[in-house]
Amino acid sequence: MDGRDAALAALFLDDLIADRPSWMADGLCREYPDVEFFPPRSAGSSAVAYAICERCLVRRECAVWAFARPDIRGIWGGTTFQSRGKARVAGLDVDELLDALDARRVRPPAPVAGPLCA
Q1: Over the stretch 38-77, which tens digit does the pLDDT of each residue have?
Q2: Residue 23 vs residues 33, 39, 72: alpha-carbon distances, Å
Q3: Domain residues of the chain, as ranges?
Q4: What tens digit of pLDDT does each residue of 43-52 get?
């Protein structure tokens, strides 16, 4: 996404959520205007967006907000339109969805301290 596209996306978002809750000002995503939080269906991995959401202080609030709006698209609180829909059908709440998503994400192994000699 180039600078112009990012600016247009920001304007669209501002219109979409004109009465946005105060927690949105603290969203870590606001610091990454070039990251695709509204990827097209044919897009590849959204790993960068998920990584940003994972570190965000308002991740849960964001996911709750999106979960309460079945028609909202995009990645919100590390959840997708599809994952939120599947969670609703399965009767999961937001915390259960976030726990399930966190459990699925593969984390790199912790670095080993000291020499690796046997």
Answers
A1: 887 655 668 889 899 999 999 999 999 999 999 999 999 9
A2: 18, 23, 18
A3: 3-104
A4: 566 888 989 9
